[in-house]
Design a protein that fits this description.
The structure is a homodimer.
Chain A lengths: L15 H15 L5 E3 L9 E3 L14 H14 L7 E3 L16 E5 L8 H6 L5 E4 L11 E4 L18 E5 L8 H11 L3 E4 L5 H8 L8 E5 L3 H10 E6 L9 H8 L4 E3 L5 H4 L6 E3 L3 H11 L4 H12 L1 H23 L26
Parallel strand pairs in A: 1-2, 3-4, 4-5, 5-6, 7-8, 7-10, 8-9, 10-11, 11-12
Chain lengths: 363, 363
C-alpha cells in the first residue's frame, strides 16, 4: 500500500488520505494479510513499514516533496514482484510507473485536485483499476472497478448526548467548506457555533470568519486532535456541512454520525450518498432550509444515527470491500497471466457484505 | 534521448539543457544513429520525435509541469525495450524509473539545482551512468562514467572583429552571474557595457542593474535570439563572466570564444576548464584584476581564440564523446546480459578524439 507522504500514517491531525490508508492497512493486517505500507518513517502501523521520507513534507520543512515522492513511489514499484497487488492511495504520480511492472495496481481516487491531472488518469485508464470514493466522484472519462465509501473506527467515537447546546463546524477553514455559511445559519438558528479545523484559506479566514469570532456566539478552537474532536462532536446539536463544492467524500460527516450527531448538509458531491434524511441528518438547499433543519435535527434519534453510521461506514465494511476487490483483481490478473492465484496470501472475499460494483475495468 | 520540457528543443531563447539535447540528438542522427527524441511537441529535430507535452511549461501557462513531466518520462521508459541506451538530459526524476527497465541509462548531470536532489542521485548511483559536464561539477558522493564538456555549432557564430568598443555581459540577470560586478568593471575600465539576458532575479535587476542603465554607458537589451547574440558577441572587446557561484559549465563562455571574443572570468566552477589564459581570455580574482584584463584582452589574437573554441568545444567533439561512451555502456551492458552488441545500431567509438574518462561506473 502506497500512502500519501504529506503527513504521517495515521495523521496526527488533518490528513484524510493518510487516515484511510491507515484504516485499510490495519484492517487488512487484522484479517491476516501480509501488508507492506510505504509511508513516512514516523508512521505507526502493524504492517511492514517501508519509508523513504523521514516525515511528512507538510510537517517537516526539511523534507523535499518532489524528491521524497519520487523515491517513495519508486521504492514500491521496484518491489512490485513481491506483491500480489499494489493499493495506490497516493495520487496520480504512481500511475506512470504502472506499465513498467506486472503487478496489478488498484488506485483509490481520493479526488481530482485539478482538471489538469485528468490526462494522467485517462492515459492509464486501461492499466490501473480505479476505485471511486463515492458514485458522485466518478469521472465520466474513466473506467472504475468499484465505488468504495470510506470507513472509520466507529468505536473511536463515543455516543454523544448532543447536550452542549451548540452547533459544530468541523473541517478546513475554506470557502469550499462553507464556514461563513455555518456562521450565518447558527446566528439565525439562535445557537452558538464552534468552529474547528485548520485554516486553508488565510484571506477567507481573516475576512469571513474571524470578524464573527467573539468567544461566545462563535468560538474558533483551531485544529483538533481525536479526543477534543470526540468531545466536540458528542456535545453538538448538529454538524453544519454547508459545502460549496462537490465533495468526493466527507470523513467528518460520517465521524459526526458515529457520535450520534446529525449532519445538516448541502446536497453537493457525495452528500446524498452519505446522509440519510430524517435518520442521520438533513439535506437542505439554502440557509433558511438549514435553519429549519437545526430544529428538526434536535428531534432525531441519536442512537439510530450512530447505528446507521456503524452499518454503512464502519472500517470493517470498507476493509471487506477492498479485500473482495483485491481478490477479484488478483484472480483476473492470474487468469490473464495463465497461472494460479496464490490463495495463501490474498483470500477470497469473505462473508462480510460489500458494496463493490460488479464491473471491473475491461482490459 | 529524454530532453527537458521546460522549453522547446532547440530553445527559442534561454534553455541550455534543451540546447545541448538538440545539438547531441542532431549530431547523432547525422552520424547515422537511430535516435528518438522525447521533447515538447513543437520541437524541431531530424530524430524521431515523441511528445507528451504540447509546449514547454515555461512557455505555455496551460502546460502543467508535474503532469507533463510524469507522462513524458514514463513514455520513454515504457518504450525502453526499443532502445540500446537512454540518454537522460532531463534531471533527477528519470532516475527513479531506471531500475524498472533493463536498458542502460546515461544521465547527463546538468547541475545540482539544490543539495536536496542529491539523495536521488546517490540512491541510483549504482544504476545510472553519470556524465559530468565539467570536472569541477563532479560531486564526491557520485560515480561518473565520464566528463564531457558541452559542444556548440561553432559555424553558427561569425568571426567577430571586436570593433564595437564595448564590453558584454551575456547571461541570466542574477547575482550568481555577476551582472553588477560587470557594470563596475566596465565603469572602471572606461568602456560601455551591453547587458543581454533574461531577468531571473527581479529584485536584483531593479536594485543593482537598472539604476546603472542609461542607454549609453550601460545598455540593457533584454533576452537575445541567435542573430542578435552573434552580432553582440562579434563586436565586443571581451565578455565579462564574473560569476559568484560554481558554474558547472558556461555555454555563453564557449559561444563567446567561437566569435573570437575573449572571456574575462572569475575562476569558479568550470571556468578554469573552459578559459585558457592568454589564449581565449583571462581568469581574474577581483575587480582590479578584471579591469587590467580588459586592456590585455584587446591585444589577444581573436582568430586563435576562435580556433581554440573549435578545437575544444565544437559540437562534433561532444557528439563523438557521447557516441564513444554510449557504445562502451551498451557493450558493457551486453556483456553483463550475456548477448552480442547490436553493432548495426550503435557503432564503436569513431576516429574523432574524445575526452571520455577510462572509468565506467562499477556495477
Amino acid at each position: 500500500m502506497l500512502a500519501s507522504i504529506a503527513h504521517r500514517v495515521p495523521p496526527r491531525g488533518y490528513g484524510p488520505w493518510e487516515q484511510v490508508a491507515s484504516t485499510l492497512a490495519e484492517g487488512l493486517v487484522a484479517r491476516g494479510h501480509d501488508v507492506t505500507l510505504f509511508a513516512t518513517a514516523d508512521s505507526l502501523t502493524t504492517a511492514h513499514l517501508h519509508a523513504e521520507a523521514p516525515a511528512g513534507y507538510e510537517e517537516d520543512p526539511t523534507v523535499d516533496a518532489k524528491v521524497c515522492e519520487a523515491l517513495h513511489i519508486a521504492a514500491c514499484f521496484e518491489r512490485a514482484g513481491q506483491f500480489d497487488v499494489i493499493s495506490n492511495q497516493f495520487d496520480f504520480l504512481p500511475l506512470v510507473f504502472s506499465r513498467l511492472v506486472s503487478t496489478p495496481v488498484v488506485t483509490t481516487v481520493h479526488g481530482f485536485s485539478s482538471e489538469r491531472i485528468l490526462p494522467v488518469y485517462r492515459a492509464y485508464d486501461d492499466v490501473t483499476h480505479h476505485v471511486a470514493i463515492s458514485d458522485a466522484d466518478r469521472h465520466p472519462d474513466l473506467t472504475y472497478a468499484a465505488t468504495i465509501h470510506h470507513g472509520i473506527d466507529v468505536d473511536a467515537f463515543s455516543p454523544g448526548a448532543g447536550d452542549g447546546g451548540y452547533l459544530l463546524f468541523l473541517g478546513r477553514i475554506h470557502p469550499d467548506k462553507g464556514t461563513a455559511t455555518a456562521i450565518e445559519v447558527a446566528r439565525r438558528a439562535g445557537l452558538p457555533l464552534v468552529v474547528a479545523g485548520v485554516v486553508h484559506d488565510e484571506v477567507y479566514h481573516r475576512r469571513e470568519v474571524l470578524p464573527h469570532v467573539d468567544g461566545d456566539r462563535v468560538r474558533y478552537v483551531g485544529p483538533v486532535g481525536p479526543a477534543q474532536r470526540d468531545r466536540l462532536l458528542g456535545g453538538a446539536v448538529a454538524l453544519l456541512h454547508l459545502i460549496d463544492f462537490d465533495e468526493p467524500f466527507g470523513l467528518s460527516v460520517v465521524e459526526s454520525m458515529a457520535a450520534g450527531t446529525p449532519v445538516i448538509a448541502y446536497p453537493r458531491g457525495s452528500m446524498a450518498e452519505l446522509v440519510t434524511p430524517g435518520l442521520t441528518g438533513f439535506l437542505v438547499d439554502d440557509v433558511p432550509g438549514a435553519v429549519t433543519a437545526v430544529a428538526a435535527a434536535a428531534g432525531l434519534d441519536r442512537t439510530a444515527c450512530r447505528r446507521e453510521a456503524r452499518a454503512r461506514f464502519a472500517a470493517g465494511r470498507m476493509v471487506a470491500d477492498y479485500e473482495q476487490l483485491f481478490a477479484r483483481v488478483v484472480e483476473e490478473h492470474a487468469a490473464r497471466m495463465g497461472h494460479d492465484v496464490p490463495g495463501r496470501r490474498v483470500g477470497r472475499a469473505g462473508t462480510v457484505g460489500g458494496r463493490v460494483s460488479e464491473r471491473l475495468s475491461e482490459q
